[in-house]
Amino acid sequence: MAKEIIQIKDLKVYYPIRSGFWNRITDYVRAVDGVNFSINEGETYGLIGESGSGKSTTGKAIVGVEKVTGGQIMYKGLDVTKASNRKKLDYNKDVQMIFQDSMSSLNPRKRIEDIIAEPIRNFENLTTDQERDRVQDLLDIVGMPSDAIYKYPHEFSGGQRQRIGVARAVATNPKLIVADEPTSALDLSVQAQVLNFMKHIQQQYNIAYLFISHDLGVVKHMSENLAIMHRGRLVELGSREEIYKHPIHIYTKRLLSAIPQVDVEHREEHKKHREQVEKEFEENQGKWYDKDGRVYPLQQVAPKHWVALPEDMAQEAELEEREEKESD
Amino acid sequence: MADKKKDTATKKASKKDATPKATLPPSGFRVAVREILRSKSALTALIIIILILLLTFGGSLFLNRAQITEMNIVDAYYGWGQGGHLLGTDDGGRDILKLLIMGGRNSIMIGISVTVITEIVGLVVGLVSGYYGGVVDAIIMRIVDFIQILPQMPIIIVLTTVIPNYNAVTLVFLIAMFGWTPTARYYRSFILSQRDRDYVLASKTSGSSNFQIMFREVLPNITSMIIIDVVLTIAGNIGIETSLSFLGYGLPTTTPSLGTLIGFANDPVNVINRPWLWLPATILLLVISLSINYVGRALQRAGDARQREN
Ligand SMILES: Nc1ncnc2c1ncn2[C@@H]1O[C@H](COP(=O)(O)OP(=O)(O)O)[C@@H](O)[C@H]1O
Ligand SMILES: [Mg+2]
């Protein structure tokens, strides 16, 4: 059993909605609403959901740049939702982030050297020469030419900028990197390249990734475990096997059916299947979501498989899944 | 693939010119210079400003304040060019041209001094307010609101009459007391648009303090806004000094300024019969303000273009 590096317990992030004459808080956007999962050392954990489902907010809460409303994030036995604990642990030396928009995540007025050296300067005591060597090494690791250190972000392509973002994230030898849709803004060919660098670095330094994506296709070959997120809650959670082979929640099925297929022969079938899933999703809202449209609590249906279902359906699903497996 | 092509392209390029050269994204300053050079009116305005600065600041070096403000009733009210006075003399026989040179310098100096104070205060307040947001922002902005609804002119006028030892420095502080509020509001709005950018979050996860992020990361990203505001505010502040002096509540009459010169027009006789007293100062003020505004607008266009690029 791999060792858990971080545990997210009942995490909640609410944004107040203000309105009216006094600008008082009248309601909340429940961006993240009671999320539980754990990430193992050195693994890639996928967090998948359509846009607006609260993935980025979850990721930002984990790296400590988003104020949480409730719940805990346990790292090395301490609750790092508290700033004092983060400070005590030098938390961000161990937990870093790669952002979706490589342009906005690199300060346009700083040279690449200063961008990558920023975490090193803050967390480590190196001489100027050592620091420059380290930055050169990092650029080398992500396959960037060495004269890049003198340049500014706008002089690079999107893929190159994202690799610079990766270099910055690994600068302090972190244990966990939250990668928020690191490739979704890139061309397909460049995507693969960046993903390869990320994989390579992971193997070399035993880094765990929380890999956020809206596309189940992208994470298929990356992550051992996955959580599917919708409306700020997890709808399904489990090993890659379980999620891709035995999806139960209609939302997961919908995401799976949305993966583009290259298979030309069965194109019609896929299209039909997709339409059918979409129809079921539209028509059976009441079955999969409670009367407020909220996602149900997770129920275990197999050793490595949890689904958000009302309790009676959970037992059914458990039986079905067992039968399905026997017939496999 | 596409990336690789670009890679080799950049390699080829860097081989050609061996020295690695970095090009800063068009900085506020460089965009400003380019924009001014491109627009004829702005360039003309800039040249006029430089000439005026040379005339007033350079000319003042050769003048002695005690001497030019000395009363010499015998020479009173010479007209244009009479008695060797190119722009005539005033009621005390003082040479208007010399008063204009020194007064112009004083007015510009006061405008610049007020601007330095209001820009620094406004920038820091705007940064803090916009960056922290929330309660801090709410409190600061209510204070700003409060100061902005106060009637600025009457309060300054009252204070000038009660403050002992009233001089140019006190006047600068009186004007600055009110002047920082629109500046703070202006910078706050730009900080608000910057603080949610991912580079700020990245700096946080890189372990930088809020103070470092505000001044080292965010501030350089609004340099063009600072240049624009500084230029336009200088013109405005020269105007405030001038109107106060014109009303008789600005600088004491022993300190020449554009406002005190224009103040001669308070007397209807002077307005009609002795235009040399107030007309040159009025024209100088007009030219300064217009020129600065032309330059400022050109900078603003450059700034807007940059905003669009971002
Ligand atoms: N700063 C904020 N203020 C108010 N609402 C926010 C804020 N950030 C995100 N939200 C809302 O929270 C929800 C989740 O957003 P996000 O985590 O960015 O989703 P995702 O990354 O899955 O696309 C969205 O409905 C979004 O509008
Ligand atoms: Mg997102």
UniProtKB/TrEMBL annotation, chain A:
Gene Ontology terms, MF aspect: ATP binding; ATP hydrolysis activity
Protein name: Abc-type oligopeptide transport system, atpase component
GO annotation (BP), single: transmembrane transport
SUPFAM superfamilies xrefs: P-loop containing nucleoside triphosphate hydrolases
UniProt key word Transport: yes
InterPro entries: AAA+_ATPase (IPR003593), ABC_transp_ATP-bind (IPR050319), ABC_transporter-like_ATP-bd (IPR003439), ABC_transporter-like_CS (IPR017871), Oligopep_ABC_C (IPR013563), P-loop_NTPase (IPR027417)
CDD domains: ABC_NikE_OppD_transporters (cd03257)
This protein's UniProt keywords: ATP-binding, Nucleotide-binding, Peptide transport, Protein transport, Transport
Domain ABC transporter residue range list: 6-256
Similarity-based family: Belongs to the ABC transporter superfamily.
Cited Pfam families: ABC_tran, oligo_HPY
Organism: Lactobacillus gallinarum DSM 10532 = JCM 2011
Automatic annotation (TrEMBL), chain B:
Main location class: membrane
Transmembrane segments: 42-63, 108-131, 218-240, 276-296
Cellular compartment(s): Cell membrane
Residue spans of biased composition, Basic and acidic residues class: 1-19
Any single Pfam family the record assigns to this protein: BPD_transp_1
Alphabetic keyword roster: Cell membrane, Membrane, Transmembrane, Transmembrane helix, Transport
Domain ABC transmembrane type-1 as annotated: residue spans: 104-296
Cellular component, GO annotation: plasma membrane
GO biological process: transmembrane transport
Record carries keyword Zinc-finger: no
Record membrane topology: Multi-pass membrane protein
UniProt-listed InterPro entries: BP-dependent_transpt_permease, MetI-like, MetI-like_sf
Region annotated Disordered, chain positions: 1-23
The UniProt record lists the keyword Membrane: yes
Family membership: Belongs to the binding-protein-dependent transport system permease family.
Name of the protein: Oligopeptide ABC transporter, permease protein
Species name: Lactobacillus gallinarum DSM 10532 = JCM 2011
